[in-house]
Amino acid sequence: QTQLISPDPEGIARISALLTAGEVVAIPTETVYGLAGDARNAVAVARIYAAKGRPSFNPLIVHLPDLETAERIAVFDAQSRALAAAFWPGALTMVLPLRPDAGIASLVTAGLGTVAIRLPAHQAARTLLRAFGGPLAAPSANPSGRISPTAAAHVADPVTGLGGRIPAVLDAGACPVGVESTIIGWVAGQPALLRPGGIAAEDIQAVLGQPLAAPVIDPDMPSAPGQLTSHYAPRASLRLNATSAAADEVLIGFGDVAGEISLSENGDPVEAASRLFDILHRADALGRPIAVAPIPETGLGAAINDRLRRAAAPR
Ligand code: TXA
Ligand code: MG
């Protein structure tokens, strides 16, 4: 039985105690719900992979309370410090050289010499990180390959979520950003966009004063989860760039394309990102084929289209 726990002081203490005991629990972040475990405890990290049914080559993001703890785990340079100053706490993950004495379980990094880190902005996540007093490894709290969770109910669902497989969900309502963090790494010394996400690539490029390289993607050796071809998949089929519904399709609208339900009637990509996964969960529950209106590729539109293309990919 998976319990929903409120983020009041008593709830935070209970979740923190579960984490200290090596359990895995779902926690809210500003992007999506994460399946958190103590990043120093190999057994806890193995439980994350097991609960998600995640392939072990896919390393996890380490969540930290502040820059001081981040500097003890990873090596920063001028560019990563500038990005940290501009976007942390927030929906940016950076893949940086791992300090050998960081104390992070090797299963977190899948044995790589780098570590993905992020300081979440969500109040409940920050309070929990301070109460727990350690690094939390946390992928999105969905079964591997399924739609990401942006509400506690998505996590607790026994069929499409992790209900029954984890002891608890820290329930702080809907995630305000709604898509996973943007992942930046350095490839041959050049900053590269490893996954589009909650912070627009344009804003990152503006801080760096240079374009982000788009890394070559090898679908057999994904270095970011979204790089698995079929990810974020609903059970029903999904058709992109639809301007009207065919047969019994549920049309998900955007802007001028009205649809049965809309990602954003005003055509606002930020609002659309915040609703994306909840609307996909709901549309999927109807058991009808899904069609989605075109979304412009600018700002958070890039992250939305990335998730939609993967949800539509053949599997
Ligand atoms: O918004 C988010 O980022 C959410 C919330 C919970 O924080 N987390 C999330 O984690 O999306 P996850 O596990 O689904 O995505 C992390 C991805 C990994 O799949 C991996 O491909 C990439 O980050 N990653 C992690 N460590 C890496 C590394 N050392 N090198 C390259 N990529 C890495
Ligand atoms: Mg994920």
Can you give keywords for this protein?
8-stranded mixed beta sheet, DHBP synthase, 2 domains, binds threonylcarbamoyladenylate, alpha/beta, 315 residues, binds magnesium ion
Output the CATH homologous superfamily of the largest domain.
DHBP synthase
Query: From the coordinates shown, what is the CATH architecture of the largest domain?
Result: Alpha-Beta Complex
Could you tell me the radius of gyration in angstroms? Answer: 19 Å
Overall form: globular
Bound molecules: threonylcarbamoyladenylate, magnesium ion
What kind of oligomer do you see? single chain
Family: Belongs to the SUA5 family.
Function: Required for the formation of a threonylcarbamoyl group on adenosine at position 37 (t(6)A37) in tRNAs that read codons beginning with adenine.
Binding site for ATP: 54, 58, 114, 140, 148, 195, 232
Protein name: Threonylcarbamoyl-AMP synthase
Description:
This is Threonylcarbamoyl-AMP synthase. Keywords: ATP-binding, Cytoplasm, Nucleotide-binding, Nucleotidyltransferase, Transferase, tRNA processing. Pfam families: Sua5_C, Sua5_yciO_yrdC. It catalyses: L-threonine + hydrogencarbonate + ATP = L-threonylcarbamoyladenylate + diphosphate + H2O. The chain has 315 residues and is α/β, with parallel strands linked by helices. It folds into two domains: 3-217, Alpha-Beta Complex (DHBP synthase), CATH 3.90.870; 238-312, no CATH class. Helix content is 30%, strand content 17%. It has ten helices and 14 strands. Strands 2-3-7-4-6-5-9-10 form an eight-stranded mixed β-sheet, sandwiched between helices. The radius of gyration is 19 Å and the shape is globular. It starts with a strand and ends with a helix. The protein binds threonylcarbamoyladenylate (TXA) and magnesium ion. The site of magnesium ion has 4 residues, from loops.
